[in-house]
Structure formats: structure tokens, C-alpha cells
Amino acid sequence: MLKLKGGKTLYYGKGDVLAYRTYAAPLTVAPIPESRFEGDSNVIFAHNITFSTSGEQLLSSFTEGDNALVVATDSMKNFILRQTALYAGGTTEGLLAYLSRAFMERYPHIDAVEISADRLPFTPVPIAGESGWSDSPLVFRSSRNEHGSASSAWTRSGSDIVLQRQESSLSHMQLIKVSGSSFYGFVRDEYTTLPESFDRPLFIFLDIFWTYENAEDAFDGARGRYVPAEQVHDLAHTTFHAHASPSIQHLIYVIACRMLSRFPQLSSVRFESNNRTWETVVEPDGAGSAGVYTEPRPPYGFQGFELTRAEWEEEER
Q1: Tell me: domain 169-316, CATH 3.10.270.10, correct?
Q2: Whether 14 is catalytic
Q3: What is the pTM of this model?
Q4: Calpha distance 206→290 (Å, rounded)
Q5: 8 catalytically annotated
Q6: Which of 5, 36, 282, 283 meets the CB 3.0–4.6 Å disulfide criterion with 292?
Q7: What is the separation of C-alpha 207 from the centre of its chain, rounded to a whole number of angstroms?
């Protein structure tokens, strides 16, 4: 939330700015064992952007109705769309940094900018050719699966434009593991009705967030230290498959440890998870046998956890 120096909250902006850029700079990343992802052609580089601004000189527009220094939100939208064409990089984080700096340079009375974006996934369709199947370089399909996101906040300090915070994320993961998860040994008293489970189908909704030791690694993919959301979700998938989790809490802790181990450029990882484990209708008769389940009834359990590199390194000693 953007605040003035005296602590007063003041901001306005534009949401749902849909920017469908074609042929952004291709992205190449270092491989990791848990993922086959090594880059993106960025033929379609599409985002849903939210942008807000604040400034001491904008206060009169609220208190007096004076619009002399108001940059209309329609102008913000046009600025974002046109400037997106000029962005020379290939990461969501870099695009947000470019737009923020360019806007504050164009409008020097703006003291602060907050910006976020969801990457809109488009995947190439497979096509059959004489030598077999390959990905089309021209035809893509829209995906509503998990997607990468990013956010950052910028302020003016004298003549400098300063980054206040930056975070990357993977949003809206939905994973079901049909066997190999349990939940037992928890506190039991007069309020407890939940039975212990020693092998349950575990369905989770999961958002993962990460920050860099040096934000320039997020802004500039050419530095070779960018962490793509695609590798994060592959790492999470692999960990969920391999780890016999006694709880969602322990599962996200293990994913956090593996991320900090695999990506030394990260300073912290945090999670927001939601338990959507199915209700059992027909109990399976042993592993691999048929069972029938249905949607759980609300309310839903949730978990939150953050692990910093300093904490992880202390635990590893």
C-alpha cells in the first residue's frame, strides 16, 4: 500500500491492463535436475498488469478536486501498452522494473509506484510433420493452469528511483497426490472429530513466493541467474511425488529447503497453501485399489510459511 512521507495513504491506478506482446527477447535459464525447462522463446509475452501511483503533489486532487497533476488512468494504460513494445528483456520482473522506472522518469511529480502482473500462459500446440511431432512456432493455446506472477514497489529518493521491494511468485497450483500422504498424531481432545489418516489422497492449492539476494537477477535474464516459475512448479511437483508427507506443513517446508538449495541466488521462499483434501465416500481396500471421493465441505484449512536463507543455513549447520 502506497503512503506519503507523513504516513497518509494516497494512491490511484489502473487494473486489468492486458498487454499481449509478441516476440520479446528469448529467455535461457540454467537447468536443474527436477525440471526439463531450459527457457522460453517468448513468442507470446502476455501479462495482466495492475499499476498504482502516489505522490505528495497529488493530495490536492483528493482534498480539493484539483486535477492539474493527475495522470489519467487511461493515460497510464496507454503508457503501459506502448512502453511494453519497447522493453528489450524477457522476464516479467524486468518488464515491471522497466515500466516503473520509465513512468517515474516521464512524470517527475510521482513519488512512488507499485506494480504487479500475472503472466498469461500460452503454450505452443503440437503439430505432426514428416519427421514426427514438434511444437508450432506460430499457433499457441491459452492455458488457465498455474502461472508466474511478480510485484515490485519503487520510490523516489532525490534524483534516484529506488526499489523498495520485489517478489516473484507461482500462483494457483492445484495438486492431488492419490497415495503417500498422512496426517496423524495431532492433538486430540473433546473438540476433535477428525480421524487420523495413515494414507490419504492429499489435494492442495498452493502459491509459492520467492525473493532474490540481488533483484537484478530477476530483472535481467541475461545474467544467467533467473529463477523461472516453470522450474519452481516442476521442483514442487517432484518433491510432492517423492516425499511421504506427514502434513502439508512439512511438505511446504521440504519444498522450501529444496528451493533454497537449488537456487543460491534466492534470499527467501514463502508459501500460502490450502487444504482441499477430498472426503472419502468409498474407502479403498489397500493401495492401488478403487476408492470414491467427493469435494470437501467448507471451511478449508490453510497454512503459511516463510524460510529465509539465513534460517535455512543455520538449520543446515
Answers
A1: yes
A2: yes
A3: 0.91
A4: 27
A5: no
A6: 282
A7: 7
- State the cell numbers at 176: 492431488
Given the residues 9, 22, 73, 77, select the one marked as catalytic. 73
Longest dimension (CA), the chain: 73
Taking alpha carbons only, the member of 120, 221, 218 closest to residue 171 is 120
**Alpha carbons 317 and 315: distance in angstroms, whole number:** 6
Q: Helices 229-242 & 248-262, crossing angle to 10 degrees?
A: 130
Task: Please say if the pLDDT value at position 1 is more than 70.
Answer: no
**Per-residue pLDDT reduced to its tens digit, 37-78:** 999 999 999 999 999 999 999 999 999 998 999 999 999 999
Three-state DSSP state, 118 = strand
User: Could you identify the residue written with the cell 523498495?
Assistant: 164
Which residue type does 142 have? S
Q: To the nearest whole number, what is the mean pLDDT of the chain?
A: 92
- Domain 12-167 falls under CATH 3.40.50.1220: no
Q: How far apart are CA 92 and CA 24, in angstroms?
A: 11
Domains 12-167 and 169-316 in one fold: yes
Domain boundaries, the chain: 12-167, 169-316
Active-site pick, 14, 53, 92, 155: 14
Q: pLDDT tens, 219-246?
A: 999 999 999 999 999 999 999 999 888 9
